[in-house]
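I'll show a record.
***
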Amino acid sequence: KVNMTRSGAHPTLLMTGAYPQWDMEALERDYQVLRLYESGDPDALIAANAADIRAIATRGDLGASADLMARLPNLEIVSVFGVGIDGVDFAHTRACSIKVTNTPDVLTDDVADIAVALLLSAARLVPQGDRLVRSGAWPKGGLPLVTRVHGKKANIIGMGRTSSSVAKHLSGFDCEISYIA
């Protein structure tokens, strides 16, 4: 566990990118938030506050480079908003005993919902049907016959959290599930 409090003062948090407003309210209440992404001179912002910055709040798409972390001598934690942690330099975090967190499973079922929605959309020609109806051309002719998803074989690439969730979703369609490594 990382203890971020120092004599009653709010710890300083460096944010590399924007978060949703509902998250910002809590962060601004509990931390001194420095917005690197809004700074006209990010290097000057870091230089002026380096000793006070104890945490980086970043996103999966932004990460935290070794160069950035090396400039923060009292850095204790990198918190990644999202699942992706590929942009965090783990060689540096391990060498400096910096903790790294992320939010696995936060969007797993949401991503699976979208995957199944896209599958249904493609199989049932939903976008084409929508365009046909909106254009007013549907009385002149419909769409070709389409396939169904129910009872089909679904080949899912990978066996991670999202793939497992997609398989669970498709089980409701009585699909035969196969995994491809």
Summary: The chain has a mean pLDDT of 93. The first strand starts at residue 12 and ends at 15. The radius of gyration is 23 Å. The chain has seven helices and seven strands.
